[in-house]
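Recall the central idea of this unit: under ordinary conditions, the amino acid sequence of a chain determines the structure it adopts. In this exercise we apply that idea directly, starting from the sequence alone.
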Amino acid sequence: MSNRKTIIIVGGGFAGLELINQLGNSNYNVILVDTNNYNFFPPLLYQVAAGFMEPSAISYPFRKILRSKPNVKFRLGALEKVVPQENKIIVSNGELYYDLLVMATGAETNFFGNKNIEEYSLPMKTISDALALRNVIFTRLERATRLEKREDRKKLLSFVIAGAGPTGVELSGIFAEMRAHILTKDYPELSMNDLGEIYLIDGQDAVLAVMSEKTQKYSYKKLEELGVTIKLNTLVKDFKDDVISLSDGTEIHSRNLIWAAGISAKTFDGFTPENYGPGRRLKTNAFNLVDGYDNIYAIGDSALVSGDPNYPKGHPQLAQTAIQQAKNLGENLCSTHQWKPFAYKDLGTMAIIGRNKAVTDGPDQKFFFKGFLAWCIWIFVHIMSLVNFRNRMRALYDWIGYYINKDQSFRMIIKPKK
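Accordingly, the structure predicted from this sequence is:
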């Protein structure tokens, strides 16, 4: 054991966990470092936020995952600094030394320097964010039942979602279905006219801009049918005093701005400004080795991999990219032969709009599914992507309940004690 090299993996998301699967039971000592003691599935955070799933359905403890991997240890802590010249990292509760370091730290919400939006909007990147949003939604619904003026109720219950990517589309769709099927039943004090509007705002000229034109048109049509107001080629400029200011000069009076408009990689002390490229991603070669180092790698959302002519600006920051990079790096680290450069394989893109409404683009957008078939594909792919059988069965049970009843029962307001 003492002759084994130590690999530290910082971050237990899609990339970090896949790399552990590759290195488990290998001839390396592996240490996973993460600020949480659990892995979670980000594509389903919006369902937790809307009360359609409980957090345990999309999360699982690292230590239970690692039971069958005796060469892998877990360290709970936040990375504070990398010290490459000493082959060590400083975390919030100590120091760790490595032979090889893998940065799989993912991305965080990008507020583009707008301090008001950063302070007052509601992000959607972590389980804590999703639970905070759930608490806000249902607390404000309760408060609205006590307000006398309709304009006050509408301001409290109007939701503005910035960013019309998959997260924004899925959030606006599920909020629209809640408004149509649930809220007036649970809150008889409120009428449909009290519930306010749902706005989806994006600076580009299409919803789901990274997907095919057919997908964009279908999604736009279905969201409009659900009652979502869509404003494209428009940016959110400010959020102050319950007023959301848009780049076209209009204002929306609402307490609720949900920010799904962009991400950027996390940065850490110890790397130089030259190490970072667009989106603050660490620049690497085709083998995910960070430029300027011989024992530090970056994978997933934190990596900007060079050498692929099809993606000169970097690979898409998607789960499949992270998983494929981790698998390739793991195979290289365990190989006794020549290393293989990373080559991204597009497996397609999908998004759900609502019950029986989803879209799926095939690899390289060569084919397109919509409606119930795409919805079934979305359900299957997301269930199989969950970390274990328990999570898959719980998610399937939740979705069957929602499909039959158009309802779910996880709308509790659970706030931490101050």
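The chain has a mean pLDDT of 93.
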